[in-house]
Amino acid sequence: MTLSFTIHATAGNARTGILATQHGDIRTPAFMPVGTAATVKAMHPEAVAATGADILLGNTYHLMLRPTAERVARLGGLHQFMNWQKPILTDSGGFQVMSLAGLRKITEQAVTFQSHIDGSTHVLSPERSMEIQHLLGSTITMVLDECTPFPATEDVARASMEMSMRWAARSKDAFVKRPGYGLFGIVQGSVYEPLRLRSAQALSEIGFDGYAIGGLAVGEGQAEMFRVLDFTVPATPAEKPRYLMGVGKPADILGAVERGVDMFDCVIPTRSGRNARAYTSMGEINLRNARHADDPRPLDAATNSPINRYSRAYLHHLFKADEMLGPMLLTQHNLHYYQELMAGIRAAIANGTFAAHADSLRNGWKQGDFAPL
Amino acid sequence: MTLSFTIHATAGNARTGILATQHGDIRTPAFMPVGTAATVKAMHPEAVAATGADILLGNTYHLMLRPTAERVARLGGLHQFMNWQKPILTDSGGFQVMSLAGLRKITEQAVTFQSHIDGSTHVLSPERSMEIQHLLGSTITMVLDECTPFPATEDVARASMEMSMRWAARSKDAFVKRPGYGLFGIVQGSVYEPLRLRSAQALSEIGFDGYAIGGLAVGEGQAEMFRVLDFTVPATPAEKPRYLMGVGKPADILGAVERGVDMFDCVIPTRSGRNARAYTSMGEINLRNARHADDPRPLDAATNSPINRYSRAYLHHLFKADEMLGPMLLTQHNLHYYQELMAGIRAAIANGTFAAHADSLRNGWKQGDFAPL
What is the C-alpha separation between A318 and A246, in angstroms, rounded? Predict the structure, then answer.
């Protein structure tokens, strides 16, 4: 094992600590902005760092198709290619193969699929996924798993999970260990407790630098997701970082931290930002709403948002006029809000005020936006 | 007169100096990035300032329709609205009324037109244009003129120019003088020397803080534009700043500076940047070209481009993947290149090396891009 994880404080099941890597420390609980195609959409990389992000996520599926892993490797690896020197986690490509690619065929050996860009045929096996992520130079590599459809019967979920566990072992065998670089396993098993426990056990026996929980945030709803976390998280090794993939909204993240999760990624802050939706201490706010047209107030004065020098009226105008600066500013705001959320959570866990802090966050979101002028 | 213009050095007809305003000094020759709808497309305002721009241009036509001048005024004026504290020049709205608006009717009194956004009817007179630009808080206001079509017969051009001169007098009467704010007249007359001379004379008699040259860069070609400048520029008062509207490419700007022009605006660096076209010391470069796909070199190492830490391969990838960061970075580069061009021109005029510097610039553009690897 080649990553070092230190837990500095706990509050119930919640923990705060540091995951040390070749490319720097990741303060946990951590939120990873998504940089699908070697760019966090609408953001300069230095602006991503300025929001407080310690790590970002790249998508193996997109990068293997364009510009290709081999090209990125020739150009010095993903860090150099995109000018991001902090840690990068890459997913395995499995999720996007299922959600984006054309005709797919899955066998025990590998998944064969057609590119959504040009229809060309590609093969992704655990071994090839490890090779791609190595070519990219990922700080944290994810095992290739099959993303179990939702809903799935227990029999379907079991067969899928069991193949993913065999793929996890093959991924481990193929992964090239390097100091400061790590490999995470992914717990599957849909919503079924016995399957999740068996998956967590199987992964623990193989041994990974961290344990991701996959197959959630796929339509099951927050209550069901929390129910699954309640039995899944304790089944993973407590001394290793836990990563809930593809989650989520601020309330999802807070609830998962309370259940012992350390790492998150999600397109919500970036995608919503491009669509005029802001996440704030007062909940979600849609800047396209006409109520903002004459409002001179900043978006969220309770936070240190880097766009608080702009009025809501200006942000509203930018979206009405389809100006790129609207998505640019609101993406920046949302990523900053998410990082401020994580920083507040980490501080509260560290100083023993996490329960009160969580109440305060939820009260703010529930209270909603202030009244129009 | 309420703006102070000081010429520090000359080289032939070229001059360098300072136009002092309420919002700060403008170093001339100056290039003004275009911020049509209260934003320079794809740029944070602080990034625009970081390119070296002393002033930007806002479009009265767009702003009067959305968000409206009255709303901008309620929100503290255009500077505060868009977070740009340096000088702003606004055009009069006349040019866009002719190029963008729907059904138009021009009378001696005013132009009536339909919004290209929602078809609503609006009236723009010299007095209303002054009022709108006052509401916006423009540092430099432009008189309302009629943009003479090109080509135009001498009779058509004369009638149009003469109405524009009457509108210039009405604009001057309606303009509210304030220290550090100014009003520029606009010379018209198409390609006809007698008309241009008469127009310049008429404006001089009215008296303005600066003299713009309108009705060029409308399809007449660079040689014809230079021919018109050769007799038009000397007809304007030498002690006032001269502004060539809507120009242009780097070679157009250089040739116009040699003919005594002090100020420029153009959408080329921003629009081209969004379309993968870069302006460099080696001429124009299209980043969509496949020759860049594997090229690890920076775009233009001979300049201090803020995007030189990215490879051409990365820029190519961003445009192929339709990522917003491509337009963001290339707009930033182009605006920086234009400002570096202007800074070099100013320095060369000041230290007596302008002719050699102009040769050097033209040789670089003519030589073109370096060979593929």
Answer: 29
Query: What is the Cα Rg of chain B in Å?
Result: 20
What proportion of chain B, given as a percentage, has pLDDT over 70?
100
Tell me the per-residue pLDDT of B115-150, one tens digit each, with 9 for 90 and over: 999 999 999 999 999 999 999 999 999 999 998 989
pLDDT tens, A271-307? 999 999 999 999 999 999 999 999 999 999 999 999 9
Task: Locate B168 and state its tokens.
Answer: 């210039």
**Residue partners of A82: CB distance under 8 A and separation at least 6:** A35, A38, A39, A45, B314
Torsion of Cα atoms, A169 then A172 then A175 then A176, to 10°:
-140
Residues of A annotated as catalytic (active site), given as ranges: 91, 265
Sheet arrangement for strand B121-124: B104-106, B111-114, B121-124
Nearest to B37 among A41, A42, A321 (CB): A321
Q: Do A324 and B41 count as a contact with CB atoms less than 8 A apart? A: yes
Q: Which residues of A touch B74 (CB under 8 A)?
A: 294
Q: Which of A38, A324, A329 sits opposite B324 (nearest CB)?
A: A324
Half-sphere exposure in the Cβ direction for A153 (13 Å, CA): 3
**pLDDT-based confidence at residue A46 (cuts at 50, 70, 90):** very high
Q: Do the Cβ atoms of A93 and A81 come closer than 8 Å?
A: no
Interface pTM (ipTM) of the complex? Answer: 0.98
Q: Which residues of B touch A324 (CB under 8 A)?
A: 41-42, 324, 327-328
pLDDT digits over A232-241, tens only? 999 999 999 9
Q: Which of A85, A87, A81 is nearest to A63 (CA)?
A: A81
Q: What is the pLDDT of residue B1?
A: 53
Mutation test of the interface with chain A: which of B270, B320, B323, B333, choosing the one with the most A Cβ atoms within 10 A? Answer: B323
Structure tokens at B24: 């700060």
Put simply, the answer to whether A75 touches B314 (Cβ < 8 Å) is yes
To the nearest whole angstrom, how far is the Cα of A365 from the nearest Cα of chain B? 28
Task: Map residue B44 onto helix, strand or coil.
Answer: coil
| Catalytic one of B54, B252, B262, B265 | B265
Q: Closest residue of A to B117, CA-based?
A: A321
Mutate to test the interface with B, among A56, A319, A323 (most CBs of B within 10 A): A323
Q: Which chain A positions have a beta carbon within 8 Å of B37's beta carbon?
A: 317, 321, 323
State the SS3 of chain A: CCCEEEEEEEECCEEEEEEEECCEEEEECEEECECCCCCCCCCCHHHHHHCCCCCEEECHHHHHHCCCHHHHHHCCCHHHHHCCCCCEEECCCHHHHHHCCCCEEECCCCEEEECCCCCCEEEECHHHHHHHHHHHCCCEEECCCCCCCCCCCHHHHHHHHHHHHHHHHHHHHHCCCCCCCEEEEEECCCCCHHHHHHHHHHHHHHCCCEEEECCCCCCCCHHHHHHHHHHHHHHCCCCCCEEECCCCCHHHHHHHHHCCCCEEECCHHHHHHHCCEEEECCEEEECCCHHHCCCCCCCCCCCCCCCCCCCHHHHHHHHHCCCCHHHHHHHHHHHHHHHHHHHHHHHHHHCCCHHHHHHHHHHHHHHCCCCCC
Q: How far is B325 from chain A (nearest CA, A)?
A: 6
In whole angstroms, give the CA distance from residue B244 to residue B263: 6
**Token pair listed for B324:** 């917003």
